[in-house]
Amino acid sequence: MIYVEERGNGKPLLLIHGFGVDHRILASLSQMLDELGGWKQIFIDLPGHGHSPIGDVSSSQDVVDAVESWIHTHIAEESFAVIGNSFGGMVARCIAHDMREQVFGLATLAGVFVNDHDKRSLPPKTVLHSDPELISSLGENGEDYAQMAVVQTAKHAAAFESYVQPGLEVADRDALHRISSQYSLEQEPEDAHPEAFTQPSLFITGKQDQIVGYQDAWNRLEHYPRASFAVLDAAGHNVHLERQLLVEALIRDWLNRIDDNNA
């Protein structure tokens, strides 16, 4: 069973969160999507995350298979766009290639492009603005926030506590351990399906993201002839929270390009 929350009306937009959090990490996009209109926002919790039980899922490939099975049942044959964050970016890329004829747009936010952690091209951990008093004021949440934050501010910390921390607190740790033991796919989706993905795409990365980096996404540039690639300074793995307005502008542009492509 996959937990789902829907919002708005229009063309389906599937939003897939990252590893160890839940659908709420992408909820910050809802106001912008409401204002844009024309899209039914479909937030899911991946197996072993949030309100979705792990079931018999025991690998990243099983996660992909579970989501694709859910799509076949609940979105059926309707065309849709998909956006994934971090681990969810990897899931989204798999969906876009496996269900190519049905997907009319792909986007990732700090998406995983190389599953093997040891093979990723990563910048060193960098904090451009530190605020020890702020970190201390967050109590038990301070360490989790500081682990990711590139620019430590009260506004960013509030966003972290609203959208990220709740998912961290309810994650099934045994389930995460089970999936992480078989985290890597046999093949990256671009290698398994080498034909270029020609629908409007968007790949947003953080220049200071020490978790997945930005170079590995750019290495796939030629595979996506209709893609906008953006590497944002003063942003780490939670790029959509640290550079919210710019990320939202890029997502609006992506969705408008999808509309134009299907006019």
Structural class: alpha/beta
> What characteristic shape results from the CA principal axes?
globular
Using the 3D structure, state the CATH architecture. Answer: 3-Layer(aba) Sandwich
Rg over CA atoms: 17 Å
CATH topology: Rossmann fold
Task: Please state how the strands of the largest beta sheet are arranged side by side.
Answer: 1-3-2-4-5-6-7
Query: How many distinct helices?
Result: 12
DSSP strand tally? 7
What is the strand content? 15-25%
CATH class: Alpha Beta
Look at the structure and give the mean pLDDT.
96
Distance between the termini: 35 Å
CATH superfamily: Alpha/Beta hydrolase fold, catalytic domain
Description:
Helix 10 (215-218) links the parallel strand 6 (201-206) and strand 7 (227-232). The mean pLDDT is 96. The radius of gyration is 17 Å and the shape is globular. Strands 1-3-2-4-5-6-7 form a seven-stranded mixed sheet, with helices on both faces. The chain is 38% helix and 16% strand. The chain has one domain (4-123, 172-261): Alpha/Beta hydrolase fold, catalytic domain (Rossmann fold), CATH 3.40.50.1820. The protein is built from twelve helices and seven strands. The relative contact order is 0.17. It has helices at 30-36, 60-74, 87-98, 132-137, 142-148, 154-163, 165-170, 173-180, 189-192, 215-218, 239-242, 244-261, and strands at 4-7, 11-16, 39-44, 80-85, 103-109, 201-206, 227-232.
